Amino acid sequence: MDRTEKAIKIDNMRSLCPIANALDIVGDKWTLLVMRDVFAGKRTYGEFQASPESIPTNILADRLKRLVGYGVLQKIPYQQRPVRNTYQLTDKGHSLAPVIREILQWGTKNIAGTAANIKMDL
Amino acid sequence: MDRTEKAIKIDNMRSLCPIANALDIVGDKWTLLVMRDVFAGKRTYGEFQASPESIPTNILADRLKRLVGYGVLQKIPYQQRPVRNTYQLTDKGHSLAPVIREILQWGTKNIAGTAANIKMDL
DNA sequence: AAATAGACTTGCAAATAAGAAGTGACTATC
DNA sequence: GATAGTCACTTCTTATTTGCAAGTCTATTT
């Protein structure tokens, strides 16, 4: 990891296993879908909401907050009056690319009727 | 994918995205932890239960049933009287190795205090 | 002044998870 | 041969999380 960046600190770790702890951050139905959208170039709340899976708005707000909290994304304003924000990848976020790439590959190969038609920076 | 194996068929797909569909199979707090154990050589219900994260027994039963249902694991008896089963990787299950490997790497690099001390066939 | 837009927040019912206890098949022990 | 023990679950109850609809807040556009 980039030495200027701090590692994520999780309290009440359920074990010392990196996989278990990673799953406590990204192991749910929506988090990696938001990350997929970020890797696909989406940046704003509205763009995430517009994705075909129709993430509930309260869940989206919660996931963005968590991802920012863990330092995987950063919230950066792109205009004042009214304030509008973008959510952008940090280095930690960027390093999730291989995880998403492998999930994409696994799904494409093993789940009938799926199509990887989004272009991503993976 | 091995051509002798059928692709997973999901009903009510939330989108055509391979990532979204893959997450509907493995995107939760426990499923990939069970898979980690399988890759670490664990085979029986009791061994999965004994892992340090203490998976609730009803959840374990549910996840094993789902994984078998999707053809990611197979339930194979290793003795009669009393019947005792093992859960073993199918080809579809085996092909999850890269996903787990990348999650393991990400967690190890980015989460403080984690240690990849289990040996896995990844 | 009223309507519109983007980014959320709130409230509540429904679904899922957690935790503890119980069951059934069989084996080993007293 | 009754009693205790093991393994692999199942059931029950409570707690937590999700999903959906509606509402709020700030600011702009008409």
What's the short story on this structure?
The structure is a homodimer of 122-residue chains. With 122 residues, chain A is mainly alpha-helical. Chain A has a single domain (18-110), classed as Orthogonal Bundle (Arc Repressor Mutant, subunit A), CATH 1.10.10.
Would you kindly provide a written description of the structure presented here, covering whatever features stand out?
The structure is a homodimer of 122-residue chains. In chain A, strand 1 and strand 2 form a beta hairpin. Chain A is globular and about 45 Å long. The first copy, chain A, has a single domain, classed as Orthogonal Bundle (Arc Repressor Mutant, subunit A), CATH 1.10.10.10. The mean pLDDT of chain A is 94. Chain A has a two-stranded antiparallel ribbon. The first copy, chain A, has 6 helices and 2 strands; from the N terminus they run ααααββαα. Chain A is mainly α and 122 residues long. At the A-B interface, helix 1, helix 2 and helix 6 of A face helix 1, helix 2 and helix 6 of B. The structure holds a DNA duplex (30 and 30 nucleotides).
